């Protein structure tokens, strides 16, 4: 019995010693440890103080003497203040707080290339998503006429040299922005026999267009659509 008691005490002491050694090596959980490394979210900025999703943060009240944030700063940097263009862009900003002129121009340039190439390829599906109903009908009519004659357009888009906003205005709830776009394009139209009947398949041509894009600022759809086209001489 004495041996049993001694053995029991020995193992108890050994267990306590091992416990404290492990505690010193591994540390204690406090509930504030960082989660394990996740390679799919490691590149994102993590906010350890993130609030629950059902909490809405109200705007912070400005301290006395603190300058107000200029909601038109990006517009004033883009178009000279007190000009018609600046006033038009400000009116759009008033109706669409997320509007940024530089971001718009970048998007319009991408849309321009997509539309030009979709028209050359006869891609009606792409055009339908980017054009207003009236412009779409005109483009589709031209494509249909071309197909009826068995003609094809051979095009290569080189790039856009300039894309400048020339006017902006609100028409009711619709924002309208007109751009002057200067691009470079290689384009040639061939008949059913393959002969070139318009353009040049080996020459880069400069193309000048004046396009107007619009969107309803009341709509949840953030996309703009082409509503008018004009080729500049």
TrEMBL record:
<dbReference type="GO" id="GO:0051087">
    <property type="term" value="F:protein-folding chaperone binding"/>
</dbReference>
<dbReference type="InterPro" id="IPR016985">
    <property type="entry name" value="UCP031890_Tim44-rel"/>
</dbReference>
<keyword id="KW-0809">Transit peptide</keyword>
<feature type="domain" description="Tim44-like">
    <location>
        <begin position="85"/>
        <end position="231"/>
    </location>
</feature>
<dbReference type="InterPro" id="IPR032710">
    <property type="entry name" value="NTF2-like_dom_sf"/>
</dbReference>
<comment type="similarity">
    <text>Belongs to the Tim44 family.</text>
</comment>
<dbReference type="GO" id="GO:0016020">
    <property type="term" value="C:membrane"/>
</dbReference>
<keyword id="KW-0472">Membrane</keyword>
<protein>
    <submittedName>
        <fullName>Calcium-binding protein</fullName>
    </submittedName>
</protein>
<keyword id="KW-0812">Transmembrane</keyword>
<feature type="region of interest" description="Disordered">
    <location>
        <begin position="31"/>
        <end position="54"/>
    </location>
</feature>
<dbReference type="GO" id="GO:0030150">
    <property type="term" value="P:protein import into mitochondrial matrix"/>
</dbReference>
<dbReference type="Pfam" id="PF04280">
    <property type="entry name" value="Tim44"/>
</dbReference>
<dbReference type="InterPro" id="IPR007379">
    <property type="entry name" value="Tim44-like_dom"/>
</dbReference>
<dbReference type="InterPro" id="IPR039544">
    <property type="entry name" value="Tim44-like"/>
</dbReference>
<feature type="transmembrane region" description="Helical">
    <location>
        <begin position="6"/>
        <end position="26"/>
    </location>
</feature>
<keyword id="KW-1133">Transmembrane helix</keyword>
């Amino acid at each position: 019995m004495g041996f049993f008691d001694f053995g029991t005490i020995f193992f108890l002491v050994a267990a306590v010693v091992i416990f404290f050694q492990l505690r010193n090596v591994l540390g204690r959980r406090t509930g504030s440890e960082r989660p394990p490394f996740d390679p799919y979210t490691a590149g994102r900025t993590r906010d350890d103080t993130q609030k629950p999703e059902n909490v809405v943060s109200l705007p912070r009240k400005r301290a006395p003497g603190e300058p107000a944030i200029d909601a038109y700063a990006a517009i004033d940097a883009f178009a000279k203040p007190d000009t018609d263009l600046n006033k038009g862009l400000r009116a759009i900003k008033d109706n669409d707080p997320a509007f940024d002129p530089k971001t718009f121009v970048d998007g319009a340039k991408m849309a321009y290339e997509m539309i030009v190439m979709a028209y050359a390829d006869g891609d009606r599906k792409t055009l339908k998503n980017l054009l207003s109903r009236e412009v779409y009908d005109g483009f589709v009519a031209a494509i249909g006429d071309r197909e009826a004659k068995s003609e094809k357009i051979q095009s290569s888009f080189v790039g856009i040299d300039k894309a400048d906003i020339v006017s902006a205005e609100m028409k009711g709830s619709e924002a309208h922005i007109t751009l002057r776009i200067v691009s470079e394009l290689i384009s040639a139209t061939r008949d059913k026999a393959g002969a070139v009947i318009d353009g040049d398949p080996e020459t880069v041509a400069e193309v000048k267009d004046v396009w107007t894009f619009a969107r309803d600022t009341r709509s949840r759809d953030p996309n703009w659509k082409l509503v008018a086209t004009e080729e500049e001489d």
